[in-house]
Amino acid sequence: MKSGFITLIGKPNVGKSSLLNEIIGEKIAIMSPKPQTTRNNILGIYTNDLMQAIFIDTPGLHNPKSELNKKMVDETYKSLKGVDICILMMDISKPISDYELKIIDRIKNYTIPVFLVLNKIDLVSKLDLIKRLEEVNKLMSFKEIFPLSVKNKDNIDTLLNKVYEYLPEGPMYYPNDQITDVPEKFVVSELIREKVLLLTNEEIPHSVAVIDVLYRENNTISATIVVERESQKKIIIGHNGEMIKEIGKRARIDINNLLKKRINLELWVKVKDNWRNRLVDVKQYGNYHD
């Protein structure tokens, strides 16, 4: 039996959470086109007869401008301690950014194997793919390079086979039917936050948090959406409550799938001024625990 920990790092929106969900076969990490959707390190546990591979989905690496952003970047680099494999993920349809070059400069001297995953090959021509492969090969000596498409499920099995090759012999760290280590209530809160990100504009995404998830009688779950300004609260509620109804409707579908039963969902909205720049609030509303 082989086992070990694999961290997924990269800029926001390169497909780390999508890849994790595809590998695990369940939606445990939320996704949206908004930057910095993932705020916490989330474990996805993949187990078969030969290995237990524990993937760590991390917040996208970016230049932090608030206490929340700093905490997100800290979470990512914390994930690199004690792992067996590092997977750097990039969007092949976009030019390599200066920040990605900084990431590579930081990890190129790591003693652990570093894989490069080039996602979204479905968006580029074969010629562009060849050019990008030549480009990245000059940046550092990656142990393995995988052009793939999470959307089309291309080459994911090849990636898993290579993960198996590089993992050490080891024990099963988790029961073979466990797919994540995060509490169920955390996943519920993230599914609600995802719907807020998908349904609201630029003013909202970075300032929203979901807290106080409570299981009540009659299969009812309640939760509170936190924003930083009264104007944002009005947007979340919407005209005649239409926005918060739509958030609840969409979140309820995913929560039903997660819990394998039908639930009622009650959502509330409150304002906590400037919470992203107070570390005590970041730890509470961002679900961080030191």
Provide an overview of this structure.
The model has no long low-confidence stretch (mean pLDDT 85). By secondary structure, this protein is of the alpha/beta class. Helix content is 36%, strand content 21%. Helix 4 (126-137) links the parallel strand 5 and strand 6. The protein has a six-stranded mixed β-sheet, sandwiched between helices. Strands 7-8-9 form a three-stranded mixed β-sheet. The chain folds into two domains: 2-166, 3-Layer(aba) Sandwich (Rossmann fold), CATH 3.40.50; 184-285, K homology (KH) domain (GMP Synthetase, Chain A, domain 3). Helix 6 runs antiparallel to helix 8. The protein is globular, with a radius of gyration of 20 Å. It starts with a strand and ends in a 5-residue tail after the last helix. The longest helix is centred in the C-terminal third of the chain and has 18 residues, at 242-259.
Span from first to last CA? 32 Å
CATH architecture of the largest domain: 3-Layer(aba) Sandwich
Strand segment count: 9
CATH superfamily of the largest domain: P-loop containing nucleotide triphosphate hydrolases
Rg over CA atoms: 20 Å
In spatial order, strands of the major sheet run 2-3-1-4-5-6
How much beta, percentage-wise?
A: 15-25%
Order of helices and strands: EHEEHEHEHEHHEEHHEH
The chain-level structural class is alpha/beta
Helical residues, percent:
25-40%
- Are there runs of 5+ residues with pLDDT below 50, and where? none
Fold-level CATH name of the largest domain? Rossmann fold
Average residue pLDDT? 85
Q: How many structural units, i.e. domains? A: 2
- How many H/I helices? 9
- What is the CATH C level class of the largest domain, in words? Alpha Beta
What characterizes the major β-sheet?
Answer: 6 strands, mixed
Q: How would you sum up the global shape?
A: globular
